[in-house]
Amino acid sequence: MADHATGKIVGVNGNMITVAFEGSVSQNEVGYARHGDMRLIAEVVRIRDRNADLQVFDSTRDLMVGSPVEFTGELLSSELGPGLLTQIYDGLQNPLPRLAEQCGFFLERGVYLTAIPRDTRWAFTPRVKAGDKLKAGETIGTVPEGMFEHRIMLPFDVDGSVQVEWVSPAASLTVMDPVARVTDPTGAKREITMLQRWPVKIPIQAFAERLRPADPLVTKIRIVDTFFPVARGGTYCIPGPFGAGKTVLQQITSRYADVDIVIIAACGERAGEVVETLREFPELIDPKTGRSLMDRTVIICNTSSMPVAAREASVYTAATIAAYYRQMGLHVLLLADSTSRWAQALREMSGRLEEIPGEEAFPAYLESVIAAFYERGGLVRLHDGSFGSITIGGTVSPAGGNFDEPVTQSTLKVVGAFHGLSRARSDARRYPAIDPLDSWSKYAPVVPAELVETARELLRKGSDVGQMMKVVGEEGTSIDDFTTYLKSEYIDSVYLQQDAYHEVDCATPAERQREVFTLIAGILQQSMTFTDKTAARRFFHQLTQTTRDWNRTAADTPEFKELQKKIEQMVAEVASHA
Amino acid sequence: MHKYYHRVQNIAGNVLTIRAEGVRYGELAEVHSRRGTSLAQVIRLKGDEVSLQVFSGSRGVATDAQIRFLGHPMQVPFTDALLGRVFTGGAEPRDNGPALTDNLIAIGGPSVNPARRIIPRRMVRTGIPMIDLFNTLVESQKLPIFARAGEPYNPLLARIALQSEVDVIVLGGMGLKHDDYLFFRDTLDASGALARTVMFVHTAADPVVECLLVPDVSLAVAEQFALAGKRVLVLLTDMTNFADAMKEIAITMEQIPSNRGYPGDLYSQLASRYEKAVDFEGAGSLTILAVTTMPGDDVTHPVPDNTGYITEGQFYLRDGRIEPFGSLSRLKQLVNGKTRDDHRTIMNAMIQLYAAYRETQEKQSMGFRMNEWDGKLLKYGVRFEREMMDLSVNIPLESALDLGWAIFADCFDPIETGIHSKLIDAYWPKVAPAAN
Q1: Is B114 at the interface with chain A, CB within 8 A?
Q2: Is the pLDDT at A235 greater than 90, yes or no?
Q3: Which listed site, A28, A244, A303, A516, has its alpha carbon 20 to 30 Å from A224?
Q4: Is A305 part of the contact surface with chain B (CB cutoff 8 Å)?
Q5: Which domains does chain A have, with CATH numbers?
Q6: Same domain, B119 and B208
Q7: B69 and B138 share one domain
Q8: What's the gap in Å between the CA of B430 and the closest CA on chain A?
Q9: B166-225 tens-digit pLDDT
Q10: Of the partner residues B113, B118, B257, the one whose CB lies closest to the CB of residue A361
Q11: Which of B302, B299, B292, B304 shows the shortest CA–CA distance to B260?
């Protein structure tokens, strides 16, 4: 410890302390502020002369001018190793359930536990032998973690290529036991354990190359997969006013998305919402694997009343754990709810540092910080030729529900898809409340793209007619326009809307989306003749009812085929063709 | 330790700066000046400069005021003797009763570990149909009442305090008019509810710093009652005044404002109070109902807007009634399936028909001809507003459900309500009730 800097507090302002230090201190280095027996973790955010400003990840109450501060020489880091899955952490990777065992109902200050259990034994199988050459991120051996083969990798901070001198035979080991010893070209030896640490604010880049995301990530939400798709390794955002259903949409995605691992960063939102996930996930069965959903999930939970600085760290902790599993050739989905709260944490700290504010007092570097975060997603080819990806989905909570604010705008610049939730749709109970006209996506849908374009064109026209009808009334609308309007309402109610609480309708697989959408797109293109508007309305009312029943029927049943035939017959009866 | 300092350097707003050593962040101090003694709290340390926020305001504080540091943060007594009493935001008696000094607890304690929270499961009965029937309040919920200034939100809170089935009520008043304070006290006293109530009241005439303390003091006491196994309801009025007090202090401290002058941490500050709402497994619970007045009736104003992102729904109070549209209890579905099997059906059917009534009303006001169905709706709407929405209605949930059936039977044929026939068979009144 002797070669790390030490210091004394010379100022306290909210969760920021100013420390006069001796020795060498680096930006983002971690220090501990001592208060009696208590050590409070803090991170350097600015250095001026011989004074460092640190943000404290806990309440600063009772700290005094003159209190000692110990620097650690390390950046804020996450622990990586087998045992991360199923865990529930706070923003600094403190395991919350174990913290509760120790401290009871409340989060006591200054209590930090190890993130990965030290006593669990893992069945290690070596993949290399003495004499092999390895690069950072390459596999030394594997352990089974739940349903995954967890790769034990050469630590990401290893420079260049090293030679394996010794590797453990197959054995039952803890994360602290050595699994290998390597020698670098200079002859320095290093012992490798299953546990490694990585600074959260630095992206892990131990892969061969980054690729363009191409394959769709199927969420089983029709409006997303068909109209505003997300790609594996892509990024998307969900802005929306309060009560529009951002969190519910993310909860559904975290259940049904076709990925290997889901990392949920509940960042500055209601604790109650996380509790639902915490209590329900262990009970829910993943249809793909037949195991509990919790087995593929890590929850990082820094809710609104928990320390603000740790809120900022929480999204980086989540991104680091996501990148760790990507290195194993897995597809990871990172859901951050809500990035606005994270941006507000940046704003609070920037205010305490008395930086010159940008728009709405957000710091001037807000855009680049948001961009850098979303850039931590992506599809990569690993050194062994396998592929891994991180898809990032972030919610945004714009003030007043107005998207013209800095966080929404900075996010829109860097993401690949925009799912804008609208108050009008959520008030009308049209869920999911993604606005079909304002939203966009740059990724490829699961259905033929030209069909989506026709449907989108029709929705736009239908909305125009709807607007016009408000002025001129139904009487002043031509039957053709009226039919267009009814068609747009039809696709809205039977395809865009989806019942999240119905056992069949809640999740529509890609294959079924293709089948259903092709039929519906055909209906939309079909020209129809009606005697009058009442007849048209009655027809679409019945068609909607039948199609909704179809949505609620399991795909492999005879009823499914029957209803499909019935729909086709209904349409054929009104079809006007030569 | 308890040495006196008397070299005040700066006085700005309610903040004074002195030179002192060995002072802890957040610690309390006593400021003795010619105007009397006041408590103050350390809000910034910079070298040997200590900034103190004076609870009773800096008016009349002289540069030679004597300051003594107490070595502990703000505390509040916690005993059963609190019940029936009224205190200021600084926890001083306001009712001429004795000062309490037993069992002092710190305010603004740590937040609850999310891993120890449970899914809420018990409703809070208030006797107000617009709440119990349509937007059920759930134990451990945090709900604001959004209202324009001038709406009867304080009488509503008083009614909820009188009628709700809870063990302890903690009322935190911020920037209350003195008349409103007396109204609360007298109303609760007259009904005997004062005996289970603790009041922390800051009136508009009191120093603004005390306003800042009210939520923390109220919630600290409420939390202790909840840990002791009590079902506690915390009523806060008005949180917009609290936010404005924060704004005032932040500007004095030369903080950079973010949105309409409010400090950048408004969301975190509000959240750390609202998130105190919790159901302790194996002990009691803490439920929060808080009035948030909307300046200019604008829900996108920073205070109601940030509040909406924190709370689990909201009640809109408009024209003296809880508005059925827009009002939402996000937790209601956790409990309203377990009350009576017709609860959800009545809830949905009544609201749908009331929405239809509003449309008809609009048509009527535009001079369109009314048909038979419109006539039924108009009759229904009037009864619904008078017998369900009126805030003076005080009936248990079950009677409210029965009343719902009676109103339906009076106004409609069973099929027009769109209710499932099984429920119609079970609940539709067999004999048409006498028209009233």
Answers
A1: yes
A2: yes
A3: A303
A4: yes
A5: 6-75 (2.40.10.170), 80-112+208-441 (3.40.50.300), 122-194 (2.40.50.100), 449-574 (1.10.1140.10)
A6: yes
A7: no
A8: 33
A9: 999 999 999 999 999 999 999 999 998 999 999 999 999 998 999 999 999 999 999 999
A10: B257
A11: B302
**Residue A358 scores a pLDDT above 60:** yes
Give every CB contact of residue A203 below 8 A, 6+ residues apart in sequence. A319, A323, A375, A376
**pLDDT tens for residues B313-367?**
999 999 999 999 889 999 998 998 899 999 999 998 999 899 889 988 988 887 7
Q: At what angle do helices A558-574 and A533-551 cross, to 10 degrees?
A: 160
Interface of A with B in 119-178 (CB under 8 A): none
> Does the beta-carbon distance from A18 to B46 stay under 8 Å?
yes
* B113/A66 touch (CB, cutoff 8 Å), yes or no: no
CA–CA distance, A235 with A419 (Å, rounded to integer): 11
- Please name the residues between 303 and 362 in chain B that touch chain A, using a CB distance below 8 Å: 305-306, 308-310, 312-313, 328, 331
CATH number, position B30: 2.40.10.170
Q: Which tens digits make up the pLDDT trace of A473-497?
A: 777 889 999 999 999 999 999 999 9
Contacts of B302 in chain A (CB under 8 A): 399
Asked if the Cβ–Cβ distance from A63 to B25 is below 8 Å, we say yes
**Amino acid letter for position A548:** R
Of A18, A278, A362, the CB nearest to B114: A278
Query: Which domain, by its residues, includes B88?
Result: 76-333
Q: pLDDT grade, residue A1 (50/70/90)?
A: very low
Q: Would you say residue B433 lies in a domain?
A: no
Q: Are residues B411 and B272 in the same domain?
A: no
Q: Which residue of B has its CA nearest to A96?
A: B115
* pLDDT tens profile B359-401: 889 888 877 778 888 999 999 999 999 999 998 899 999 999 9
Taking a contact as any Cβ pair under 8 Å apart, which residues of chain A between 81 and 120 contact chain B? Answer: 88, 96-97, 99-100, 103-109
User: What is chain A's percent helix, strand, coil content, to nearest 5?
Assistant: 35, 25, 40
Residue B255: inside a domain: yes
| pLDDT averaged over every residue in chain A | 93
Looking at the complex, does the CB of residue A341 fall below 8 Å from at least one CB of chain B? yes
Same structural domain, B321 and B347: no
User: Å from A360 to nearest chain B CA?
Assistant: 5
On the question of pLDDT at B430 being above 90, the answer is: no
ipTM over 0.85: yes
- Determine whether the interchain pair B268/A104 forms a contact, defined as Cβ–Cβ distance below 8 Å: no
Task: Choose the final residue of a domain: B304, B333, B362.
Answer: B333
Min CA distance, B179 vs chain A (Å)? Answer: 33
Other C-beta atoms closer than 10 Å to the C-beta of B311 total 27
- CA–chain centroid gap for A538, Å, is 43
Inter-chain residue contact A65 with B268, CB threshold 8 Å: no
Other CB atoms within 10 A of residue B307 CB: 28
Q: What is the pLDDT of residues A39-78, one digit of tens each?
A: 999 999 999 989 999 999 999 999 999 999 999 999 999 9
Residues B35 and B100 in one domain: no
Q: How far apart are CA B293 and CA B304, in angstroms?
A: 8
Q: Which residues of B touch A270 (CB under 8 A)?
A: 275, 310, 312
DSSP secondary structure code for residue B114 in this structure: G
Do A99 and B113 count as a contact with CB atoms less than 8 A apart? Answer: yes
**Looking at residue B169, which CATH number applies to its domain?**
3.40.50.12240
